[in-house]
Amino acid sequence: MKKLELYWRDLNMGSIVETNWDMRSSGNISFKFDYLAELSENKHLADFIKFSIKDSILLDEGVQDDDLIFAQAEEEKKILDLIVDTTTDWYILDEKGEKSIILCPIFHEDDQITWMKDSDYF
Q1: What is the pLDDT of residues 15-33, one digit of tens each?
Q2: What is the CA radius of gyration of the chain?
Q3: Which of 16, 24, 86, 102 could join 4 in a cystine, given CB atoms 3.0 to 4.6 angstroms apart?
Q4: Which sign, positive or negative, has the C-alpha torsion 69, 111, 17, 9?
Q5: Which contiguous run of DSSP H or E holds residue 92?
Q6: Number of domains making up the chain
Q7: What is the pLDDT of residues 54-77, one digit of tens each?
Q8: Residue 120 included in any domain
Q9: Domain residues for 45?
């Protein structure tokens, strides 16, 4: 099991223990901030994490039309900058300090996370 650090820009969001790896990797994350706090110090990221968890629950329940949720997010314009996949803002650092650019990760219930390396950068 690899231990990694998840970053968005210069902010260390948390430590990840990778439990599964394939084309997409997944694992458990220990957040460096309380995203459930009403007045989170990183409100923008907290809103995104909550949105991502809600979205992954709907997908797990078989909701096929994900566009409805993303349309809501686009309308609110709150978190799109975190979702865009043409950015190098999301990355992980391994135990050796090597950086890997990843696509926007998906957060799940129970501190689970899924991510995928950006093929343009690895």
Answers
A1: 999 998 776 899 999 999 8
A2: 14
A3: 16
A4: positive
A5: strand 90-93
A6: 1
A7: 888 877 777 666 566 665 655 456
A8: no
A9: 3-115
